[in-house]
């Protein structure tokens, strides 16, 4: 009977792996009891150097850029993606087209613009430029910080990323809990792995974890004990969790598996967790981020790809592009590829990583579905709509329907800046907060130039 299954799960005692495995067992217990209330999760993938709107619009769909000029577009566009071809850079997400929402037309003028909007990108607050450069002021909370307070986990927020400087361990670039309280982005995968998963142990057990250098090896005794006491559906679900952890064993670069790069096939770096190649480090951080979600360590994850003014001119040598993104942004070419083609190759790599994350979350049962059913992934750039952005619009790509609460499989384009029906990035962030259970109707700073428009509330058009 159900009560016996639940009691059996409750009665399993754990040793060194209690922090990780107890999270898994609690989900199995709730499901066995028929009282499961699944956690909501939010993932932010923030890439540097802007996203040109035309590069993520469905193929064949023409649109004018949203600039502050007379006659700027005023129509709201909402079309199905079902029969639309995705752009080259978004093709890795094709299997989830029905869970995909491309959102265009949102402005973020209060953020100022420039090479990077830094904390303003996820904060929807001011800061602007100072002394000819982009401001690093933290004038408020960012959306990932706000969600961390709304749906806290063992770690309320985990920030992982890649800096152009291999020596950087921790940086403060795009996330904040509140005014003057930035949240860290861990940039060295090996140290991030040790910090997050080494937290399952104390004393001699911590030393054992460091020596084994692998989560499954460290948890082996506890895993065998749990497997011996589980039967039926719970055993199958538990094994699915373990399979997702297995990816942490693979410390080899996956660059040779990625198509559509300029990189010739060749030997990959031996360990992506300590690699100097930026694409290897980003790959490793996605692995760690996925495991952190699956283990239940956090409900809010931010993955930063050289975001922030200090790293925006990163070079993606791992993709065979030996030209930095600053030069690409100024129209640079490399090996016969124009700037837009180079941007597309780099963005496609990010979408490959996002697709891998979706697959891992889909592989883990949760309630009557999978973890991905209760997760939303939002991709955007800290640079808004261009290399030298002015934030007239802020293209975003969203994957996931939050258990049916979002209308997906759509391309949505809001009216231009200042036009009736125009919305801002703050409205998107209110949408996410309300999906998380918050009653908030505003976020960040209101745009003083949009005083004639209602800037409160969520993007109702995205909600069921």
Question: Can you offer a commentary on this structure?
Answer:
- The protein has 464 residues and is α/β, with parallel strands linked by helices.
- The chain has helices at residues 2-10, 18-33, 120-123, 143-150, 189-197, 203-212, 215-229, 232-245, 278-295, 325-329, 339-362, 425-435, and strands at 41-47, 77-80, 100-104, 129-130, 133-134, 158-162, 170-171, 176-178, 181-182, 185-186, 300-305, 365-366, 369-370, 375-381, 396-399, 410-413.
- It has a single domain (40-192, 261-462), classed as Alkaline Phosphatase, subunit A.
- It is globular and about 70 Å long.
- Strand 8 and strand 9 (181-182) form a beta hairpin.
- The chain has twelve helices and 16 strands.
What keywords describe this structure?
464 residues; globular; eight-stranded mixed beta sheet; alpha/beta; two-stranded antiparallel sheet; single chain; Alkaline Phosphatase, subunit A
């Amino acid at each position: 009977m159900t009560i016996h299954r639940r009691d059996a799960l409750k009665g399993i005692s754990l040793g060194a792996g209690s922090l990780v495995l107890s999270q898994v067992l609690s989900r199995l217990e709730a499901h066995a009891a028929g009282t499961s209330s699944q956690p909501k999760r939010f993932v932010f993938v923030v890439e540097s150097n802007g996203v040109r709107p035309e590069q993520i619009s469905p193929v064949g769909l023409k649109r004018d850029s949203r600039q502050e000029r007379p006659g700027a577009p005023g129509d709201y566009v909402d079309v199905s993606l079902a029969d639309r071809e995705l752009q080259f850079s978004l093709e890795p997400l094709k299997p989830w087209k029905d869970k995909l929402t491309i959102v265009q037309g949102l402005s973020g003028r209060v953020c100022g613009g420039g090479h990077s909007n830094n904390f303003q990108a996820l904060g929807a607050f001011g800061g602007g430029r100072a002394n000819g450069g982009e401001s690093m002021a933290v004038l408020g909370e960012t959306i990932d910080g706000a969600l961390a307070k709304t749906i806290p986990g063992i770690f309320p927020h985990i920030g992982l990323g890649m800096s152009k400087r291999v020596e950087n361990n921790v940086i403060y670039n795009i996330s904040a809990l509140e005014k003057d309280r930035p949240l860290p982005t861990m940039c060295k995968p090996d140290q991030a792995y040790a910090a997050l998963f080494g937290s399952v142990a104390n004393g001699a057990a911590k030393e054992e974890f460091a020596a084994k250098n692998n989560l499954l090896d460290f948890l082996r005794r506890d895993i065998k004990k749990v497997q011996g006491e589980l039967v039926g559906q719970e055993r199958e679900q538990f094994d699915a969790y373990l399979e997702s952890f297995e990816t942490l064993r693979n410390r080899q670069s996956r660059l040779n598996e990625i198509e559509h790069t300029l990189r010739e096939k060749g030997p990959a770096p031996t360990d992506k967790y300590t690699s100097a190649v930026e694409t290897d480090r980003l790959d490793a951080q996605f692995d760690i981020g996925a495991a952190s979600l699956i283990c239940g360590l956090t409900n809010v994850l931010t993955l930063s790809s050289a975001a922030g003014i200090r790293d925006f001119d990163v070079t993606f040598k791992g993709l065979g592009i030996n030209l930095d993104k600053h030069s690409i942004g100024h129209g640079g070419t490399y090996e016969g590829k124009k700037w837009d083609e180079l941007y597309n190759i780099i963005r496609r790599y990010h979408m490959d990583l996002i697709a891998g994350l979706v697959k891992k979350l889909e592989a883990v049962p949760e309630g009557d579905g999978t973890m991905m059913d209760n997760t939303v992934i939002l991709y955007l750039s800290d640079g808004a709509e261009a290399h030298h952005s002015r934030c007239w619009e802020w293209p975003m790509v969203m994957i996931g329907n939050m258990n049916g609460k979002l209308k997906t499989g759509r391309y949505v384009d809001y009216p231009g800046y200042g036009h009736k029906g125009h919305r801002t990035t703050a409205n998107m962030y209110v949408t996410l907060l309300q999906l998380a259970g918050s009653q908030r109707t505003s976020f960040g700073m209101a745009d003083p130039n949009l005083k004639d428009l209602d800037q409160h509330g969520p993007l109702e058009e995205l909600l069921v």
